[in-house]
Amino acid sequence: MSPVRVSHLSRGCTDVLCCILFVLALLGYFVVGIVAWSQGDPRKVIYPTDSSGQFCGQAGTRKKPFLFYFNIMKCASPLVLLEFQCPTTQICVEKCPDRFLTLKKVVSSKNDQDYYKAYCKEGTDLSTTVSTGVVISCSNHLLSCLCSDLLVLTYRLRSDSHRGPESLGSHWCCVCCRSSNKVKELRLVAMKIFEDYTRSWYWILLGLVIAMVVSLIFIILMRYLAGIMVWVMIVMAILVIGYGIVHCYMEYARLKQQPGSDITLQDIGLQTDFAVYLEIRQTWLAFMIILCILEVIIVLLLIFLRKRILIAIALIKEASRAIGYVMSSLFYPLLTFALVALVIAYWAITAVFLSTSNEPVYKVFNETDCPHSRETCDPKTFNTSNISAVCPDAQCLFAFYGGETYYHKYLILFQFYNLFLFFWCANFVTALGQVTLAGAFASYYWALKKPDDLPAFPIFSSLGRALRYHTGSLAFGALILSIVQVIRVLLEYLDHKLKGAQNKFAKFLLSCLKCCFWCLEKFIKFLNRNAYIMMAIYGKNFCSSARDAFFLLMRNIVRVAVLDKVTDFLLFLGKLLIVGLVGIFSFFFFSGRIKATEDVGFTLNYYWVPILTVVVGSYLIAHGFFSVYAMCVDTLFLCFLEDLERNDGSMERPYYMPESLLKVLKKRNDAKAVD
């Protein structure tokens, strides 16, 4: 049996074709970004923009800072996010309407006509318009006029008029928009949440720092007291959940004497003041039931898997020892986080510039026959062009907001390309992190003398090998996963479009497809992870590594399903313990139940906002630290299976199996006992 020396294997570049394709795709991504940055205008995101592309309250419309929508119901489409422009007529107004008027009343009053015209498109002649319409009272929200009632406008222009573009439905006079009482409430909630963040952001940061310190201390203790820490982690996780159950019961019992606390969640419906839910007994009963179910599941798993926990603890001990020799691995997730943040920032900026690349398009409109009808024109030079001479009654009017160049015609494809490359790059960064950590930990496992045979800088050596030899393979695995993820995004979009459809079969088929592709994505992530480990060990291409990993796992399916998942479960308990401890502390702090916090000097609209932020942030921080542990355990586990097969399952001393694992296996009589 020849020894495996990860860092000394004769390696060659793998999946070169995919590497070239990935580089070309990145170059195309940069080109799309440069073109988008030259064409887009992010001010459209900041300032309200009317249908002709003018910024309300800026040059040309300085006295009209507010944007008025003719029919804001059309803004509910998700496609609005791709263009930052609603498919309805919008005009800049000096102020939002503050009184109710009908067009029938306006015609008989000169003063009302002047007022009404302010909410009609420029150049509208009310005397030639036969219609019924209204302007009603609206209020200003973030420089947009939102109305309090839903009104339907039915009107028609003079039948022989061809002055307006049909794409806008000839909306010459203003229709007030949809009911916005809910919108107002949601905006109010958003403002209160924003205020809570401004008042408590430094305490939130302190909570996240505490979570980071606790996670780091936990990892360091695992290095020296892995067995004890695992059992402490199990007991503490059970106690933390148990405390949650007791607290929910105490709140449930306290509210028994409160009048009105027996109403159901269905009776009160959706409320913007979330504190209302905490004054209802049914809320705490639901929390208590959920925690009880979680507690029972954890206890039952511990009872039935108690024998496997010993081997899992041995695997975690060895992982702790490996991380102790490769301490730089704990900080590698910071590099992954920075690269993913860079990918997200580039995607978001490019998406904004692409979405704001549209420009106003003007067309020739006339009332008599004209050979230039509906041709594109420039209003600045229209009066001096030959079109006005050929067609005296023609006018150059705004038609739509978009563009007619090849860039604008294929803008939706550029958005799709931006989204696809975002997934590809993000998955590539994740894959690079996995193969780098796997290479470092595999070097530890297959070292004859630990730590003497380890490279001087295991993480940097592994990162260099991954970039030098396996960039194409990483891009290949990331490409497969990205295709599945993009398909899932498209299915979600179709599901959104079919929400109002009555075709039950189409909805059922779409739900099945979403479920299948969700399962496929999970399977590909699992296979890719193990393929990267085999790639880090043997230096083969992606397909060969995935095949070897898959059949190795299938030959040890029981070990994979039980032993590997037990370690995952124990690491999950560790994350749950850290999140629970920090969450309990933040609950007592932000809810004012600790007397020492009464002098902090801030009041919150919703104390659950910073609590939820700290809890989610703590989980992400703990997940970052434990992801290194999980990758170490998975790598050692795969190396362990490979080592067993290379020695035909014999309990004679294998070349590389760590003593801790060997002792546990010998206690189980033979290697088959782990099955």
Automatic annotation (TrEMBL):
InterPro entries xref list: Choline_transptr-like (IPR007603)
UniProt keywords, alphabetically: Antiport, Cell membrane, Glycoprotein, Membrane, Mitochondrion, Mitochondrion outer membrane, Phosphoprotein, Transmembrane, Transmembrane helix, Transport
Membrane spanning stretches: 12-37, 201-221, 228-246, 284-305, 325-349, 421-448, 469-491, 569-590, 602-620
Keyword Glycoprotein listed: yes
Localization annotation: Cell membrane; Mitochondrion outer membrane
GO MF annotations, alphabetized: antiporter activity
Catalytic activity: choline(out) + n H(+)(in) = choline(in) + n H(+)(out); ethanolamine(out) + n H(+)(in) = ethanolamine(in) + n H(+)(out)
Topology relative to the membrane: Multi-pass membrane protein
UniProt-listed Pfam families: Choline_transpo (PF04515)
Major site of localization recorded for this protein: membrane
GO CC annotations, alphabetized: mitochondrial outer membrane; plasma membrane
Biological role stated in the UniProt entry: Choline transporter.
Family affiliation: Belongs to the CTL (choline transporter-like) family.
Protein name, entry field: Choline transporter-like protein
Organism field: Scleropages formosus
Lineage of the species this protein comes from: Eukaryota, Metazoa, Chordata, Craniata, Vertebrata
